[in-house]
Structure formats: C-alpha cells, structure tokens
Write a structure and sequence with these properties.
By secondary structure, the chain is of the alpha/beta class. It has two domains: about 190 residues, Glycogen Phosphorylase B (Rossmann fold), CATH 3.40.50.2000; about 170 residues, Glycogen Phosphorylase B (Rossmann fold, 3-Layer(aba) Sandwich), CATH 3.40.50. About 40% of the residues lie in helices and about 20% in strands. The protein has a seven-stranded parallel β-sheet with strand order 5-2-1-8-9-10-11, with helices on both faces. A three-stranded parallel β-sheet has the order 12-13-14, with helices on one face. A three-stranded parallel β-sheet has the order 15-16-17, with helices on both faces. Helix 3 links the parallel strand 8 and strand 9. The two termini are about 15 Å apart.
C-alpha cells in the first residue's frame, strides 16, 4: 500500500496538523509505504520560507504561490508543482489530504477526478464559524468533497456540522487526532518560575490572545507572583502593543518558534494550559498538556468540549474576560488534592488519543476505502 499525505506545511513549521501528521507517519512507516508532500513554507501569513539543509527522508517539499491573496491564513496558496508531481506518479494507491479549505484537498480531488486515485480528506476544520468567507469556503468544500472516498472528522461536533452542511453520513468517519505519548514522558529541568501557559499561533481572531491578556490583568491583582508564558509563531506586534497598553511587560514571557523538546519542558512545569479560542477544530495543545498531567482551561467551542470537562479542567464562554479570569484564579487557588485529581484525570483522558490507537483506526479506513468498487 502506497499512501501520500498532502499537508500545506510541515515540521519545523509549528501547528497541530503538522505534529499530528508527523506522529502518524512514524507509526505508519512500520507497515505501509508512506510519503509526505508539503511546501517550503514556515508560515503563510508572514511569508516566511524554510531553508532546510537535511530534510526527513519521506518528505518532498514544493513551492507554493499566493493565487488568491484576499483569502486569510494562507487559504489562497496553491502548489502547481505538487499537483504536477502527484499526477505524474503511478505508484500512489491512496492520497490522504489534510486541512479544510487548503489547496492540498483540491489536489487530492483533481487526482481522484482525473486518475481515480483513492482520496481521503481529513478536515481539521473549525465547525460553525460564522463569517462570509467561511460560508464561501463551505460552498467550495462541498464540491471538493464530491471527489473524496471518505472524509475524516476529528470531532463529533465537526461530523454533525458536516452532515448539516450536506455531506452524506455514509461518507464520513469520526477519528480524532492523536499524539505520541512517550515523547512527553522525558524528564526536563524546572524553569524556576510559577507560570500559566498558552501555546498556539499568534492569531488574535482565532486564538483569543487579546481576551487572555485582559483576563490576566485581573489574575495578577490577586496572584502577583504568577507569570504568563505565551509560546507560538506569527507576528508579535499586536501582542507587544497590548502588553504595553495593559502594562504587562514584566508579567508576560513571549517565546517564538522554540524547538519541540523545549516546548515539552514548558508543558511539564506550568500550572495549567489556557486555550481561549474563539473557534477551534480540536486543539492539539490540549492533548499535549494532558500528556504532561496538566489541567486545561479552554473555551466551549468546536471540538474542545469533547475532551475538556470538569474532571480534567474548566470550560468557559468564548470572548468572556470575566469568566476566563475567574477560572484562572480558581485554578490557581485549588488545594493540592483538587489539583491532583485534575492532573490524574488529564492523564487518563489522553490515553485514548495514543497515536498508535489512532493510526490503527486510520489504517482500517485505508483498507476499507481501497476495497470500494471504482
């Protein structure tokens, strides 16, 4: 079985999709022939490209160009070189394309239409975001989905949303994302500070970093010694301007593009993770925090409520500074037994997202799709 993953960006670019595909392929390489086709971009929004001297042996990178610059978050990019290579290849049994709205799903659809290559789309999308651009992307996506043998939804919420959008239930499979839990068991030295952690792209509209900073102003009124560590990628200017306006320069530590092993250290020694997103497909960072036994405070959006609950963290309304500040203060004031209970349940929760379990489910889906009549 020859499978090619089509991914808009890949490591060392930072993101949940990138990390998931990496972990998935590490397992798949033990049983199938697998490659990753991706671009040479580190970040579409900042137009930063990678300069890689020695790449992963199973990765092929292609140039991409912004054909529709009015679309946000890199959705206007397309790689004609990648399309040409996929059409040229005769050894591909199945294409597994990733990320709703990105050109990778279009390429998979074209190959399905022209060559009959089996095609699975894993959407990684944020269900239900209300915007004109989202509605436009939904219309385009419905056409693309016609050229997919199966669509993988990463949460039940996303699956229900796709059904309401007109996708046939029989063409949908629910398989969550997963991660390599062993990677998070390595012991790292303490950082020597007491801190709350945020990990994610510096996308204010999606990630709600503005709400987080405003809420943190309220938190340090009661907990002056606590710091907020923000780790991610993208433009820092908006965040730095907010830090100045809110007088938080001495209370917030901003980190950009740190290595994966260093990120684990920050997970392991934080009090808890905060993910105040306005929309979110699932939130890989939640699983990464859970893998380190850390509770999570997150918003009630997308697929988040399917994994975060009162046993392993706290849920708050999106865009509510007051609710987020109250939750953060409450988490900081838990007694040791209460905190330990959340930590133990976080570790229990993440076990079902072990990448080996998820890879088995995806492999069974591959076999099922390859056996479908042409």
């Amino acid at each position: 079985m020859k499978v090619v993953h089509l991914v808009p960006k890949f490591l060392p670019s930072i993101g949940g999709v990138e990390n998931f595909v990496f972990d998935l392929v590490q397992v798949q390489m033990n049983s199938i022939d697998v490659e990753i086709f991706t671009t040479d971009f580190y970040n579409f929004e900042t137009k930063e490209r990678l300069n890689i001297i020695k790449d992963f042996p199973y990765v092929k990178r292609f140039s991409a160009h912004n054909c529709m610059p009015l679309l946000p978050r890199g959705l206007g990019y397309f790689s004609f070189n990648m399309l040409s290579e996929v059409l040229r290849r005769e050894d591909i049994d199945l294409i597994h394309s990733h990320s709703f709205g990105y050109f990778t799903t279009y390429i998979g659809a074209v190959c399905k239409a022209l060559k009959g290559v089996r095609h699975i789309i894993q959407t990684h999308s944020d269900p239900g975001r209300k915007s004109v651009k989202r509605r436009l992307m939904n219309v385009i996506a419905r056409e693309i989905y016609r050229y997919a043998d199966r669509i993988i939804a990463i949460s039940e919420v996303e699956k229900d949303y796709l059904i309401r959008s007109g996708i046939a239930r029989k063409n949908l499979s629910y398989i969550p994302i997963g991660l390599n839990l062993e990677r998070f068991k390595i012991q790292t030295p303490d950082l020597g500070i007491d801190y709350i952690l945020f990990v994610g792209r510096f996308d204010i509209d999606q990630k709600g970093i503005d709400i987080l900073l405003k809420a943190f102003v309220e938190v340090i009124k009661k907990h002056k010694e606590v710091r907020l560590v923000i780790i991610g990628e993208g433009s820092r200017q908006y965040i730095q301007d907010m830090l100045d306006r809110l007088k938080l320069r001495d209370n917030v530590i901003l980190k950009v593009g740190i290595p994966r092993y260093e990120l684990i250290r920050y997970y392991q020694h934080c009090r808890f993770l905060v993910l105040p997103s306005r929309f979110e497909p699932f939130g890989m960072v939640i699983l990464e925090a859970f893998a380190c036994g850390k509770p999570v405070i997150a918003t009630q959006v997308g697929g988040i409520p399917s994994v975060v609950n009162e046993k392993n963290g706290m849920l708050v309304k999106a865009d509510s500074v007051k609710e987020l500040a109250l939750a953060m203060n409450k988490m900081l004031e838990l007694n040791p037994l209460e905190y330990q209970s959340l930590s133990v349940n976080a570790l229990r929760t993440v076990k079902r997202f072990d990448i080996r379990i998820i890879a088995d489910q995806i492999f069974e889906l591959y076999k099922e799709v390859l056996e479908l009549p042409q």
